[in-house]
Amino acid sequence: MSKLLYVESSPRKDRSVSSTVARSFIEAFEESHHDGQVRILNLWDYDLPEFTGDHINAKYNVLHGENPSAEELRAWEEITRIVDDFKNADNYLFSIPMWNFSIPYKLKQYIDVITQPGLTFSYSPETGYKGLIVGKPATVIYASGGEYSNPGSIRMDFQKLYMETYLKFIGFEDIKTITIEPTLSPPEVRERVVQLAQEQARTIAHPLLM
Predict the structure, then answer these.
(1) The whole model's pTM is what?
(2) How far is residue 71's CA from residue 164's CA, in Å, rounded to a whole number?
């Protein structure tokens, strides 16, 4: 059984083009892999903890090899459960709208919660940082109102740069990208770029499951 975790970071539901293209990917996944499982993690409906107090103190105790207090241990167990839930997948799908040249704050909060030493990465003075989520493919759908793939605007695109850097940091190597832009364009242009992205999503989803 192959498990797909879909992390949805747009709050716009059916009006979101990144979510629309993600649904095309999921449909292809389900058609091609009848015994597969799809879990949708909508970050706007997910009760993420604030990473403060006992949570952050527990993290530094882990980093320094020290014993956490009882309160810190409970906080760390909460983080561990969220990380285990993320890691309990075979394939990953992210849909991400561009917000102010980067990613939505809910996605950043999720990343800050699951990026923990000994859980998603390790470090040693000899080898440096090492990602712990390996051998799993990820597809990332990016949507932006402007056209940031052209040479004149690419320096303003921290959306792809951040996300791809992050995924590689925690161990992902097989990362496929779908770009939807410009969404703030006349309806016929917008419809065409969305359709092309949907076709690309379906094409990626089928080989992924063979």
Answers:
(1) 0.91
(2) 34
